[in-house]
Every structure is written in structure tokens, then in C-alpha cells.
Amino acid sequence: MTPTSVLFTPAGTGPGARRRRVWLMAGLCGLWLLEGRLPAREGGYHHAHLVVWAAGLLAALCVLPWGPLALRAAAAAGVSWSATGYLMAAGLHLPVWGLTESAALLVLLALVTWRAPVRAAVPAGVALAAGVLVAPVRDTGAPGAAVVHALVVAGVASAGLCLRYRDAERARAVAAARDAERLELAGELHDFVSHHVAAMTLLAKATRTVAEDARVAASLKDIQAAGDEALTTARRLLRVLHQDAPHRVPLPGLDGVRELVDDFRRAGRGPVRVDLHVDPGFGTGLPPELAGSVHRIVAEGLANVAKHSPGASAVRVTLREAERRLFVSVRDDGAAGQPAQRPPEDTGGLGLVGLTERADAIGGSLTAGPVAGGGWEVLAVLPVQR
User: Fold this and answer.
1) Number of domains in the chain
2) Average model confidence (pLDDT) for the chain?
3) Helix, strand, coil distribution of the chain in percent, nearest 5
4) Per-residue pLDDT tens for 67-80?
5) Based on the domain organization, do 199 and 109 belong to the same domain?
6) At 329, is the secondary structure helix, strand, or coil?
7) pLDDT given at position 241
8) 235 lies in which domain range?
9) How many Å apart are CA 150 and CA 158, to the nearest integer?
10) Do 352 and 261 share a structural domain?
11) Quick one: pLDDT band at residue 140, thresholds 50, 70, 90?
């Protein structure tokens, strides 16, 4: 019942991207076949038609992911400029259309301005845009068509830049969420570790007062001093890390999980059945930071259900332990048991980003995705050491 991890799908990957690529190539192939029949309706074929038709096919093949994007863009631009150079050198100004060629160049222009590195995007984008702009002048010599092509090129390039900006903002938000979760986890570890170090120093001090051997007493004094120095250093470091967020709220543990479920049940819309299943003995002797992480995962999982599955009729929270690992699951049945339709970029927002970082930090893992039978599941697997 392990869900597919679709938290952060890179651009251009995943089932949705593959489907879009198939539809795009189908459209280019249809346009190429249509373009092959146009010269017959215009009064006959000329070898210039064959040149442009072949250039359109080669440019369309460059849309396929057979190599790095910058290399494919350079190849398509080279094909287009070769056809243009041949027709202009031969003095042929025929209405050869070049629809497939221009469409493929525009697709590559959008991809380059969206995802290619800046160093490669600038020259490749200029070459692709110039190839599109010169096509109407090469084919018909009509300046009006060049103006239309210029507007289309500007629109496509602007769309690609907007997508690049959106992805950059998303990446910055994800990085900020991860950093915030690291700081929060550092604060929690400070609280728990400080408690144990303080107990060690007190024990060393108490033992030193009853030690009969002077050397043992001196060693215990050094241990106490080292513990005090460690506490002072930890507090100073935490103060620097949290200088912009000085007020921290203690993190609830496993005792608050049932309260989370009760609050979700009371705040639910409609007759939503919320079940909490906890294995006997779960959480016994857990370190405080691990218990706090379980609480955070359940809270974010329930928030994920409320945000993305408002039509869910049943939610199940499961806490179990097996083979020295904790399994924390929050699963909903979707809209009346229908398969989940959430796109990868909307699987919980930045909350799951932080929890993934937290799970990785303590040696575990967190996944989120659709499950068999419909619905969605957030599943965390955390190692336990008592």
C-alpha cells in the first residue's frame, strides 16, 4: 500500500508531462501531414516545398527528448537556417508555408526560455526566434506576416519567462520551508538535549560531593564544567539561529494526536468518518523529538485532507510499529471513493516539504500519493531507537 512519491516532480517528468509530450508530437505530425498536401492545392509542387517540408520534419524531431534541450534547440535552429539560406541563395520566394518548422521552433523557444540554463538559453532563444521571424520573409516576402510572427514570438518567449519565474519562486519557497523546518527541528533537539546534558551535569556535581578519591572528584568537576559549557554554547547557537523568530511554542507529543483527530472531526464538513488506529504500545519509550515528529506529520496529513479532499467521506489515521520502525499514515478515500486527481504540484504545498526534510533529518522517509482503490495517503516511515 505504499503510495507513489509525487511530492516534487521535476519539470518535464512524470505521467502528465509524458502525456502532454505525446499530444504535442501528435499535433506536429498532423500539421506536417497537412502541410504536405497544401502545395497541390496551390497549383503544384516545387523542390522548395520539399526542402521546407523536410526541414519541418527535422525540426519537429528536435522536440523529442533525445538529448539536452540546448543541443536540440541548436539542431533545430541549424536546420531552419540551412533551409532559409538555401532558398534565399536560390532566389526562391514561394508560398512554401513552413508551418511545422515554425511551430516546432516556437515550442523549442518556449522550452528554452522556461527550462534551459541562462547561459545556453540566450543564444539558443535568439537563434530560434530569428528562425521564426525570417520564415515569412523567406517564403513570401510579405512584411505583414513578419509582424504577426514577431508578436507570436514575443508572446511565446514571455510565456516561457513567466514559467521560469514561477519555478524559481517555487524553488525559493521550498528552500525556505526546508530551512524553517531545520531550524524548528534544531530548536526541538536543543530542548531535549539540554534537558539530558543538564541532568548529567547535576549528577556529576552530586557525585563529586560524595567522591572519596580526589582524582575522581577532579574528573567529575571537569565533566560538570564541560556540560555547563556545552549548554551555554547550545543556547548561544540557538539564539543566533532563531534571532528572527524568538518565540517558540513547545511541540506537543503523542498525547496531542487524539486531540488533532477530534478537532478535525468536529471541524469536518458533512458526515466524515474519522478513525484513529493506534497499535498497543505504540510510542512507549520514544524519544521526545520522535514523538513530536509523529504529531507534526499527523497534523499536516489532516490539513492536507482538508485542503485537497473536501469531498472525502472517510479518513483513517494509523500509527503502528514494526521491525524497529514507526509507520504513520493519514489516508482518505477521495471524493466518494473516486481515484485521486491532485496534480503533483498541489500535493500538500510547502507543509509536506518541511515534513520530508524533517523525516530525512531523523533517518526516515515521507511519501504522498494516490493509493489503490481511490484516495490519497501521506505515509511516514521513521526509525525508532529507544
Assistant:
1) 3
2) 75
3) 65, 10, 25
4) 898 899 999 999 88
5) no
6) strand
7) 55
8) 181-241
9) 12
10) yes
11) low
115 pLDDT higher than 60: yes
Structure-block grid coordinates of residue 360: 530525512
Q: Does the pLDDT at position 176 exceed 70? A: yes
Residues belonging to the chain = 386
In a domain, 73, yes or no: yes
pLDDT (mean) for 111-117: 90
Better-scored residue on pLDDT, 354 or 141: 354
* Backbone φ and ψ of 370, nearest 5°: -70, 155
Give yes or no for a contact between 51 and 86, defined as CB atoms under 8 angstroms apart.
yes
Helix extents (H) in 42-142: 47-61, 69-89, 99-115, 118-139
Shared domain check, 261 and 221? no
Q: Is residue 19 part of a domain?
A: yes
Q: Is the pLDDT of residue 288 over 60?
A: yes
DSSP string, 130-172: HHHHHHHHHHT--HHHHHHHHHHHHHHHHHHHHHHHHHHHHHH
Give the C-alpha separation, 205 to 207, whole Å. Answer: 5
